[in-house]
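Handout, page 2. Input:
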Amino acid sequence: MSGVVPTAPEKPAEEGENRVEAPDPRPDNPPNYKSHCVQAVPPPASCPGGLPMRFYSPQQPSTFPLYQPTSGIDPIQYQPGKHPMPNQSAPITWMPGPTLMPNCPPGLECLAQLDNIHVLQHFEPLEKVTGFETNNRYDIKNDLDQMVYIVTEDTDDFTRNSYRTLRPFVLRVTDCGGREIMTMQRPFRCTCCCFCCPSARQELEVQCPPGVTIGFVAEHWNLCRAVYSIQNEKKENVLGVRGPCSTYGCGSDSVFEVISLDGVSNIGSIVRKWNGLLSAMGDADHFEIHFPLDLDVKMKAVIFGACFLIDFMYFERPHHNVHQDRSRQ
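Output:
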């Protein structure tokens, strides 16, 4: 017994493991968060740069996604529905599509419910700098800034840059579903003849649906102003269009009146709005078309087509003059 060294009694293992640390009496000491920490989930092999934006960790206790930016700067998050993401285009608000209507060509139901539309041409800065003529594009909107149609020119590069404003063209009108509901065709007219010659007068054919002619826009020779006829599919005159004496007014709108055949009643108008510097130097025209709400929808479509013939004849800027001026300097 004398050779045995007394030792302290051993504590049970369970007592040491289950021991609870006494809280620190100091009020300023932060609490212990070790028991609430969740180990971060390593990114999967398919995402070497980190977890994707919509990846949720199965061990994450909260409902918020775990964001791990690849760089030191946090990515900017936009509120849904307010701002487009960097890799997304701006949202387009389309006019609600009405139901099918009797005696209305398919695709013109929206036009039948409107008494005015806005034709907005896209501005092409590269075309202005280089002088290379590109296909024109237009947005058709209502007063609520809702998209009604999209109009795209379909002409080859040689024809556009050789004939410029005199070029024959095909305009394709598409709706919200991308369906081509209307086609406008302008044939080539020789301008070397006398202006009073019928072969030199400009003409536009309107088809709806494509392949079915519903009307024409025919130019009439006049010494002082632009004069057109709105015709039906049989080339019978229904309405007239009378332009101003000068279409190059600076600082004011150019109004083309839609009149009756006797020239007494004013039916509507095609107004080229003045947009300041863009109207003077660039091809970014803004037209506003007015017609009666109860007008035959086919005649509405032909008046709509007359707007583009007027744009090509009077408001397309010939870019070859720019290159000539540079060569002289």
